[in-house]
Write a structure and sequence with these properties.
heterodimer; A: alpha/beta; FAD/NAD(P)-binding domain; 3 domains; five-stranded parallel beta sheet; 24 strands; 35% helix; globular; B: alpha/beta; 2 domains; eight-stranded mixed beta sheet; 10 helices; 18 strands; 28% helix
């Protein structure tokens, strides 16, 4: 094993926040490494086309191309296609271990920037694990990177601005959209109109998506949610029904849409694995995606030299992510005036960002309405009823629930279900999310093949410690 | 709680839970105080290995009896804790390891562990998943593993059924001796008992200090890892001569990799970080022993605490100079032997003759200074 490569700053994540931060700090003279598991920078929102697909040629692609070009031109070392599996504190800062196309790599730096973005939340319903059901964010990946439409006739459901993005993308790609089903009532959007209009360019894009969907004659149901998916080996029908203002099922007629696919997402949760792994302080903020790292005005967490920006510090969207990346990049380069200016622009973008985050925040009533026999932890097939039974058997904290049920022990390590499971436990116990807690962060941050992580070695090189006494 | 219990147990790991369970079944009124949830520290996050080949020679007679208890857990604990009894192999890949294995297996055999030394071909018949390079193997049919994470659930049910007053999420902050027994201080009030058992694992040291007894306990931070589910690749418990590997595949397909490689942490913060080079070293050993593990992905790694006395032998017995006070813990490979040792202590408390000698702590205390004034 060779010594870690030294840098001034390591940035984890090359989306709008991370790539902007890395480029800004590198352009200002800092030695920067930026790491991302994807083969190209851009994150989810500015994802690059791949595999020969020329891309959609839209504004997101142009923004992504510009950022990618900026990163290439800068002196930042790009470790793309690298999965980070370990992050530890050292005496001088942080050590990051990755697994890249050429095997294991280790880096170290006094400053570590976490710009890891978000995970998609899907609140379970009967049939959500059926083939043909995919996430809203997952659909954007297929559309942006590969130009792939995940079905012939699709229902788009859930909440937040991604509904319109995906539905419009599907229409443009020639797919049939059976319906767009939004949990939020129209009044929820209307209440946010002033904040939305405060960002005219983004508002105009949103309007163009909505118009494209409307023009295609797609039925749009507000205040509705997916009741269940019917089919067997694959999706055949999507049954939707009205929900109340809190997101729980409400009285009213169900509607059935014949479809071979359902694209569904219920907002985003912060990807906080790195800050949890390092035991930084977190707080629960439902609006910002759940458990988020506590940061100060300069994006520093409770640990010296550990920073969090973008959606990884709380769901705020691309505009805020880019600005936070710029502000931190300047800050880490010691350029206080520029950092201050970028932070000022963040303030102006906050109302829009909060409006969108509010539409995407977890709705506790929706979670509490999950049926007993619905699988919640899909890695380990743990149902709502089994979670309730574990609580009845004495589990009061989330790590204890894992021991009782294996919930969260699978390949995703709770990334998919944590928010839902914690809410279910808190509701069942009549306590707070804080009391239920979070799953302890542990390596690896992504599952890594044993055969790759061990690299090439001979038995004699394994540094076997001294045996225990006999 | 003002009513005085016959026994107060401080610490809800495998030792404290077993003492509490056996004492309650023996007719005592028992309260068990645990700062978190039952068996969520060492007792719930260890590798679950039930082996003789990593057990200290002096503990072999205890471990053999404890193994029988684990294999029969359903009868006394009411839950099988996922115990699987299977063959175990301790491997030697180098000449030095061969010598170490021959010597250590011989000593353990003298102590009663049915370990045979076998060659590479015979070892491969026991474990077809073995890789190349095995020079010698210790083979023991008394081996196996439990699903350690189920321990807390199992004891929670058993203790509740036995009528033990369970006080989880209640940290003891001090212990006072008083007329007729002990007063354990907690943030939620005093818990009184005629007798006292300190079973706080690595926290035994600060707990003993409350009683004025100085018993140094070293804290080990053992790194562990588990793979995702994969096809069956092994059917035994695998170790190596030095003891720095433990490996077994669970029926649901995951493989737990342990062996006591040290991570970062301490008594105050727990196991806070895993050293990547040591994780890689441990995983290299695992893949060297069972090459098909290379196909699996690493799902999770963690660190658990282990308590060790100055001579690495248990602290199980009366606390010198303090009548009716006992300590129970610091058992090397304590998950294997814990239930039996704790049962012996319960026998002593219940005024039954323990079937095997305990491990009194007199040997670990300074000549006079550390003893409590009685």
């Amino acid at each position: 094993m060779t010594a870690p490569l030294p840098f001034d700053i390591i940035v984890l994540g090359a989306g709008p926040a991370g790539a902007t931060c890395a480029a800004t700090a590198a352009e200002a003279g800092r030695r920067v490494a930026v790491v991302d598991e994807q083969p190209q920078a851009g994150g989810q929102v500015w994802r690059a086309p791949m595999g020969g697909f020329p891309g959609k040629g839209d504004a997101d692609q142009a923004s992504g191309d510009a950022l990618r070009q900026r990163l290439v031109t800068s002196s930042a070392t790009r470790l793309l296609g690298h999965r980070v599996w370990s992050v530890v504190r050292t005496e001088t800062g942080y050590r990051v271990d990755t697994l890249g196309p050429d095997g294991p790599t280790a880096l170290e730096a006094p400053s570590l920037v976490v710009a890891t973005g978000a995970h998609e939340r899907v609140v379970p319903f009967p049939g959500w694990t059926m083939p043909g059901v995919i996430g809203l964010a997952a659909a954007t990946v297929l559309l942006k990177s590969h130009g792939v439409v995940p079905g012939r006739r699709l229902v788009v459901a859930g909440c937040g601005p991604l509904l319109a993005v995906v539905a419009a993308g599907l229409v443009k790609a020639g797919a049939e959209v059976a319906a767009v089903v939004d949990i939020a009532p129209r009044s929820a959007w209307l209440a946010r109109l002033p904040a939305i209009l405060g960002q005219p360019r983004l508002a105009a894009r949103g309007l163009s998506w909505a118009l494209a969907v409307a023009k295609a004659g797609v039925p749009m149901l507000s205040g509705h949610g997916v009741r269940r998916v019917e089919g067997g080996a694959a999706v055949a029908r999507v049954v939707v029904g009205p929900v109340d203002a809190e997101g729980a099922p409400a009285d009213g007629p169900e509607r059935v849409f014949e479809a071979d696919g359902l694209i569904v997402g219920h907002g985003l949760t912060t990807a906080s694995e790195v800050t949890r792994l390092l035991r930084a302080e977190h707080r629960f903020d439902r609006l910002r995606g759940g458990w988020i790292p506590v940061i100060d005005g300069a994006f520093q967490t409770s640990l010296a030299g550990l920073y969090a920006i973008g959606d990884g510090a709380g769901i705020r969207g691309q505009a805020m992510a880019s600005l936070s990346g710029e502000a931190l990049g300047w800050h880490l380069a010691g350029r206080r005036a520029e950092a201050e200016a970028a932070r000022g622009r963040m303030a102006a973008a906050t109302p829009f960002s909060d409006a969108m985050a509010g539409l995407m925040a977890e709705r506790p009533a929706q979670v509490r309405a999950i049926a007993p026999d619905t699988v919640v932890c899909r890695c380990e097939d743990v149902t709502r009823a089994e979670i309730d039974a574990a609580v009845a058997a004495g589990a009061t904290q989330i790590d204890q629930l894992k021991h009782f049920t294996r919930c969260g022990m699978g390949p995703c390590q709770g990334r998919s279900c944590a928010d839902t499971v914690q809410e279910l436990m808190a509701a069942r116990l009549g306590t707070t999310r804080e009391a239920v807690g979070q799953w302890t962060g542990r390596p690896p941050l992504r599952p890594v093949p044993l055969g790759e992580v061990i690299g090439a070695f001979s038995y004699d090189d394994i540094p076997i410690p001294t045996p225990a006494p006999l | 709680m003002s009513a005085r219990q016959d026994l107060v147990v401080v610490g809800g790991g495998i030792h404290g839970c077993t003492v509490a369970l056996m004492a309650a079944r023996g007719g005592l009124s028992v309260a068990l105080i645990e700062r978190g949830a039952l068996c969520r520290e060492a007792s719930g996050v260890n590798a679950g290995t039930l082996t003789m080949q990593m057990t200290r020679v002096a503990l072999i007679p205890y471990a053999l009896r404890a193994h029988a208890m684990w294999a029969d857990a359903r009868s006394w604990l009411g839950h099988d804790v996922g115990v699987v009894v299977c063959d175990g192999l301790s491997l030697a890949f180098t000449e030095r390891e061969e010598e170490l294995l021959s010597y250590r297996a011989g000593k353990r055999r003298e102590a009663g562990a049915p370990i045979d030394l076998i060659g590479a071909n015979a070892a491969r018949e026991v474990e077809p998943g073995l890789g190349e390079g095995v020079r010698l193997a210790g083979h023991c049919k008394v081996d196996g593993y439990a699903n350690a994470y189920l321990t807390g659930l199992a004891f929670h049910r058993a203790l509740t059924d036995a009528g033990v007053t369970l006080m989880e999420h209640r940290a003891a902050t001090g212990i006072d001796r008083e007329e007729g027994g002990f007063a354990v201080q907690t943030a939620q009030g005093v818990v009184r008992g005629t007798r006292l058992v300190i079973a706080g694992g690595v926290w035994i040291e600060p707990m003993m200090a409350w009683l004025g007894v100085s018993l140094p306990i070293k804290v080990l931070i053992n790194q562990l890892a588990v793979t995702e589910r994969q096809r069956p690749v092994m059917r035994t418990v695998i170790g190596i001569a030095s003891g720095l590997l433990s490996l077994k595949q669970y029926p649901h397909g995951t493989t737990v990799i342990g062996g006591g490689w040290q991570g970062v942490g301490d008594r105050e913060r727990g196991g806070v970080a895993l050293m990547p080079e040591r994780l890689i070293g441990n995983v290299r050993l695992a893949c060297h022993a069972i090459p098909a593990l290379k196909e699996a992905r690493l799902a999770r790694a963690w660190a658990g605490l282990e308590a060790e006395t100055a001579d690495a032998l248990p602290a199980v017995g009366p606390i010198p100079g303090i009548p009716d006070a006992y300590v129970c813990g610091s058992v090397h490979s304590g998950y294997t032997s814990g239930p039996y040792l704790a049962r012996l202590l319960a026998d002593l408390i219940l005024e039954r003759e323990p079937a095997l000698p305990l491990f009194p702590i007199d040997r670990l205390l300074p000549p006079q200074a550390g003893r409590a004034a009685s």
